[in-house]
């Protein structure tokens, strides 16, 4: 088993390399020019093309893509993510203060997704084709199909502007930087929206898994033994039904991250998602590469952790058996 | 291996949102107003009793504090709070008022300026401000003039400035008469020097903190990066906290030489998306906002706690021709564009009056003897046939992030086609637009927006570079003579004579078709009072911030 995970980790590094190679190439080929993107036309009208070329040379943008990628990779291996073309600050310094807001948003969203998605999925499965099942299905379809920014803006106007029960965007109220309750209040709306959007697929998975288990032979056997419905449900069905859900949870991470990009933009939440939007806007490839590297690593790690948890929870799965 | 797909998916999402953001205002406004109308009837109530003014200017911000990095209007407002200039202007963006210079004398030919500095001025770290700080700022600026990345200071106009570039020599045009008097001699007379001095590129910086800073390291020092305690000016507010791309916290400087500011704290918020700023204006979480999307005007105007101002824009929307290429090199063809486009119609229909048709760039007078080119399709057709126009396609390039482009460009296209001019619209992202602009490829004309030329007609000169390789490529030598003549005299009537002739030439030759100037929307809480008034050039509004009050 140790060998299996060692192999998984090595493969993850190769995958991560592939991701950065593809991302770097795509970013380099994308239309737009980081030098020109920074200048407003008024300023541009005063610069000669020689001056523009000089800026491009200073930033190393006049070299071929493979060489630029090689330099970038060599720096990254030495722990240097490079500098943002736009701000001139080290990438690590740009990303550092944004990790915590992003992590808090994501953790809050995962909790909401679990607390909402799991019980409702079970409820749906137990009452399969019942009224509550149809109602919950309708709600999940609505959540899955409505764009996050629409949900965000509607929530902002309903709970923030009209009802005044929650703050309208930002990380905290200015002057209350250390007030934990204030921070939680600010976290509630973006966290809940991101969580609900991801609770919907989680609920669908849970329902499907539970339906399958409920119709399996051992559940029928347990019922036939005369066990109480609740005992069958919790002890026999639920435990087994949750096993695949663990994997699904691991794979939800990339969706969560993608959703966070939008949620953070709508709520002015100073996390990595917002930073990546800034970086894309400004055609700041080094900064965008930093974000992609960190997010890619986090997603790969989460899928390995999910597989590991899977093997721990389900004794039938031992990755190296029979070898 | 589904995780690959997921990661690429996340990366693609980042890129897509980035791309959408590029077109932020046009893309975001419809959705936000839709969401807003769904919850119309919000009950706004300002959170009274707060001594903090929360401000946002919904435009690009650049996270630096040394004037070499001054590139955005947001920085203009920050700099006006933290630093001072020698002179400032009132809300008409013209009438001069004192600042670090208490009084000044100008020689009759507008080439020698003597500044008598205010007394008792202190840097925010307690050190006294002296004439040496002014000498340092101007000298360093001239010695390192090519280090300025954005808006440029005036120090290169001083006598001998070119000779001190990349040296450590003193600046010949600068003379310290005594500890509180400095004389500046210009290379060429410039009657507009004082007004130009009010630009935030000319803020005076502290010698005692920056004397060892060079062009090579200026970007990296704490002063430039906005570290509280390191970014020190003489201005009414101290920088007490700064988070790049998020917010600035400014605290009143009790020792400010014009008197302590009345509002204890100012927070500048930086928004990634204007719709949230609009929501915060409604909920009372934002007190003052510049450049609010015009589509929000009606809704915000209905709120009882807000003043909503639709103000004239210092810039103008115009079509700039590539005049070196036939048939656009024929001025009759260019004049036909003027007659063909129903400019007043666009302003009435689309802007509902919140824009103004101008025959000149703002700053010029609308002289009576200019051809106003009233909408006349027959005349346009006549001019085109006189010029022998034979249906060549006019490629009209524009930056698709230009507000209202999606709505207005088809109107312009339809009007021109109606007069028989074939028009192909070429919407581009900002970067490609800039690239094509520079290479002069892929367009016969482009839409230019903005500009801060409202201050004086003199500023418009930058849109007619002498090398003929930028903008319209129009290089009539007479126009440069006229601009120089206007600069060389302090006599307003004589300046006006030059500008009048200039306006006539541009009006006749039409290197660019001036369309209209869309208003800007500014929103402020009614609690904001005292000396607060949005300046004609809105970025200058904080020049008298110490007099503002917040109830």
List keywords for this structure.
heterodimer, A: 323 residues, mainly alpha, MetI-like fold, 13 helices, 76% helix, 0% strand, B: 551 residues, alpha+beta, D-Maltodextrin-Binding Protein, domain 2, Dipeptide-binding Protein, domain 1, Dipeptide-binding Protein, domain 3, 3 domains, seven-stranded mixed β-sheet, six-stranded mixed β-sheet, 17 helices, 31% helix
Read across the widest sheet of chain B, the strand sequence of neighbours is 8-9-10-1-11-19-12
What is the percent of helical residues of chain A? over 70%
Strand content bin of chain A: under 5%
* Percent in strands of chain B: 15-25%
The Cα radius of gyration of chain A reads 24 Å
Helix and strand content put the structural class of chain A at mainly alpha
Write the layout of secondary structure elements.
The complex is a heterodimer of chains A (323) and B (551).
Chain A: H1 2-29, H2 34-38, H3 41-44, H4 49-58, H5 65-77, H6 91-126, H7 131-145, H8 148-162, H9 180-214, H10 217-224, H11 229-266, H12 272-281, H13 285-313
Chain B: H1 2-22, H2 24-38, E1 52-57, H3 73-82, E2 87-89, E3 96-98, E4 101-106, E5 112-117, H4 131-143, H5 161-164, E6 174-178, E7 181-185, H6 193-197, H7 207-210, H8 222-225, E8 237-243, E9 247-252, E10 265-269, H9 274-283, E11 288-292, H10 297-301, E12 306-311, E13 317-321, H11 331-340, H12 343-349, E14 355-357, H13 377-386, E15 393-399, H14 405-418, E16 422-428, H15 430-439, E17 445-448, H16 477-487, H17 492-509, E18 512-518, E19 520-525, E20 528-530, E21 548-550
Parallel strand pairs in B: 1-10, 1-11, 15-16, 15-17
Antiparallel strand pairs in B: 2-3, 4-5, 5-7, 6-7, 8-9, 9-10, 11-19, 12-19, 13-17, 13-18, 14-18, 20-21
How would you characterize this protein structure?
The complex is a heterodimer of chains A (323) and B (551). Chain A has 323 residues and is mainly α. Chain A has helices at residues 2-29, 34-38, 41-44, 49-58, 65-77, 91-126, 131-145, 148-162, 180-214, 217-224, 229-266, 272-281, 285-313. Chain A starts with a helix and ends in a 10-residue tail after the last helix. The mean pLDDT of chain A is 84. Chain B has 551 residues and is α+β, with helices and mostly antiparallel strands. Chain B has three domains: 16-38 and 46-60 and 74-82 and 223-313 and 520-550, Periplasmic binding protein-like II (D-Maltodextrin-Binding Protein, domain 2), CATH 3.40.190.10; 87-210, Dipeptide-binding Protein, Domain 1 (Dipeptide-binding Protein, domain 1, Alpha-Beta Complex), CATH 3.90.76.10; 316-518, Roll (Dipeptide-binding Protein, domain 3). Chain B has 17 helices and 21 strands. Chain B has helices at 2-22, 24-38, 73-82, 131-143, 161-164, 193-197, 207-210, 222-225, 274-283, 297-301, 331-340, 343-349, 377-386, 405-418, 430-439, 477-487, 492-509, and strands at 52-57, 87-89, 96-98, 101-106, 112-117, 174-178, 181-185, 237-243, 247-252, 265-269, 288-292, 306-311, 317-321, 355-357, 393-399, 422-428, 445-448, 512-518, 520-525, 528-530, 548-550. In chain B, helix 11 (331-340) packs antiparallel against helix 13 (377-386) and helix 16 packs antiparallel against helix 17 (492-509). At the A-B interface, helix 1, helix 2, helix 3, helix 8 and helix 11 of A face helix 1, helix 2, strand 10, helix 9 and helix 15 of B.
């Amino acid at each position: 088993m140790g060998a299996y995970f060692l192999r998984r980790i090595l493969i993850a590094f190769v995958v991560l390399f592939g991701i950065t190679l593809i991302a770097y190439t795509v970013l380099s080929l994308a239309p737009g020019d980081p030098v020109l993107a920074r200048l407003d036309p008024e300023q541009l009208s005063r610069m000669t093309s020689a001056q523009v070329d000089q800026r491009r040379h200073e930033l190393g943008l006049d070299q071929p893509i493979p060489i630029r990628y090689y330099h970038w990779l060599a720096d990254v291996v030495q722990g240097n993510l490079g500098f943002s073309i736009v701000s001139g600050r080290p990438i690590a310094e740009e990303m550092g203060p944004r990790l915590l807001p992003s992590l808090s948003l994501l953790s809050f969203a995962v909790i909401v997704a679990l607390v909402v998605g799991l019980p409702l999925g079970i409820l749906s499965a137990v009452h399969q084709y019942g009224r509550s099942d149809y109602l919950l299905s309708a709600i999940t379809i609505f959540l899955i199909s409505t764009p996050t920014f629409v949900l965000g803006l509607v929530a902002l106007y309903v709970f923030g502007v009209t009802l005044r029960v929650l703050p309208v965007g930002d990380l905290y109220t200015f002057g209350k930087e250390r007030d934990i309750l204030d921070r939680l209040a600010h976290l509630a709306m973006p966290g809940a929206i991101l969580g609900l959007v991801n609770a919907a697929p989680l609920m669908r998975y849970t329902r499907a898994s539970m339906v399958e288990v409920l119709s399996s032979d051992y559940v029928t056997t347990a019922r036939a033994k005369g066990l109480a419905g609740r005992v069958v449900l919790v002890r026999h069905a639920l435990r087994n039904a949750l096993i695949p859900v663990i994997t699904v949870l691991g794979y939800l991470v990339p969706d969560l991250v993608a959703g966070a990009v939008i949620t953070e933009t709508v709520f002015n939440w100073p996390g990595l998602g917002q930073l990546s939007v800034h970086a894309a806007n400004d055609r700041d490839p080094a900064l965008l590469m930093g974000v992609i590297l960190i997010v890619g690593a986090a997603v790969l790690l989460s899928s390995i952790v999910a597989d590991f948890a899977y093997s721990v929870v389900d004794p039938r799965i031992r990755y190296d058996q029979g070898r | 291996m589904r995780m690959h797909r997921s990661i690429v998916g996340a990366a693609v999402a980042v890129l897509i949102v980035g791309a959408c953001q590029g077109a932020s205002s046009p893309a975001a406004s419809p959705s936000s107003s839709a969401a807003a109308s769904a919850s119309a009837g919000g009950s706004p109530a300002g959170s009274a009793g707060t001594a903090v003014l929360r401000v946002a200017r919904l435009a690009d911000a650049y996270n630096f504090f040394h004037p070499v990095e001054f590139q955005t209007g947001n920085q203009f407002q920050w700099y006006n709070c933290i630093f001072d200039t020698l002179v400032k202007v009132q809300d008409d963006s013209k009438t001069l008022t004192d600042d670090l210079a208490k009084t000044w004398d100008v020689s009759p030919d507008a080439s020698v300026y003597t500044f008598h500095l205010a007394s008792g001025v202190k840097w925010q770290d307690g050190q006294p401000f002296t004439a040496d700080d002014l000498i340092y700022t101007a000298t360093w600026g001239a010695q390192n003039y090519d280090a300025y990345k954005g808006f440029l200071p005036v120090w290169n106009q001083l006598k001998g400035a070119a000779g001190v570039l990349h040296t450590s020599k003193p600046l010949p045009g600068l003379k310290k008469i005594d500890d509180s008097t400095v004389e500046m001699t210009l290379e060429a007379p410039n009657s507009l020097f004082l007004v130009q001095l009010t630009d935030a590129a000319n803020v005076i910086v502290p010698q005692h903190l920056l004397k060892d800073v060079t062009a090579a390291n200026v970007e990296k020092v704490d002063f430039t990066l906005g570290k509280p305690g390191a970014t020190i000016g003489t201005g009414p507010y101290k920088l007490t906290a700064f988070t790049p791309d998020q917010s600035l916290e400014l605290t009143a400087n009790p020792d400010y030489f014009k008197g302590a500011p009345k509002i204890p704290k100012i927070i500048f918020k930086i928004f990634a998306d204007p719709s949230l700023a609009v929501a915060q204006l409604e909920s009372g979480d934002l007190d003052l906002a510049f450049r609010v999307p015009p589509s929000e005007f009606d809704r915000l105007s209905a709120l009882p706690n807000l003043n909503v101002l639709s103000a004239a824009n210092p810039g103008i929307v115009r079509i700039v021709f590539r005049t070196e290429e036939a048939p656009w090199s024929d001025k009759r063809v260019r004049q036909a564009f003027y007659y063909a486009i129903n400019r007043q119609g666009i302003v009435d229909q689309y802007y509902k009056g919140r824009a103004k048709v101008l025959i000149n760039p703002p700053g010029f007078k609308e002289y009576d003897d200019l051809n106003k080119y009233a909408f006349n399709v027959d005349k346009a057709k006549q001019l085109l046939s006189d010029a022998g126009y034979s249906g060549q396609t006019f490629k009209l390039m524009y930056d698709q992030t230009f507000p209202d482009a999606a709505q207005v460009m088809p109107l312009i296209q339809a009007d021109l086609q109606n007069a028989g001019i074939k028009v192909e619209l070429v919407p581009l992202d900002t970067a490609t637009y800039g690239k094509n602009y520079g290479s002069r490829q892929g367009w016969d004309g482009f839409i230019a927006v903005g500009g801060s030329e409202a201050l004086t007609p003199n500023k418009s000169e930058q849109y007619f570079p002498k090398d003929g390789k930028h903008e319209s490529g129009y290089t009539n030598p007479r126009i440069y003579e006229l601009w120089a003549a206007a600069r060389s005299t302090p006599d307003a009537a004589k300046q006006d004579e030059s500008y009048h002739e200039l306006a006539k030439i541009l009006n006749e030759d039409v290197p660019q078709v001036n369309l209209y100037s869309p208003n800007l929307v500014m929103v402020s809480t009614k609690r904001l009072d005292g000396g607060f008034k949005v300046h004609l050039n809105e970025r200058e509004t904080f020049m008298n911030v110490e007099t503002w009050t917040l109830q």
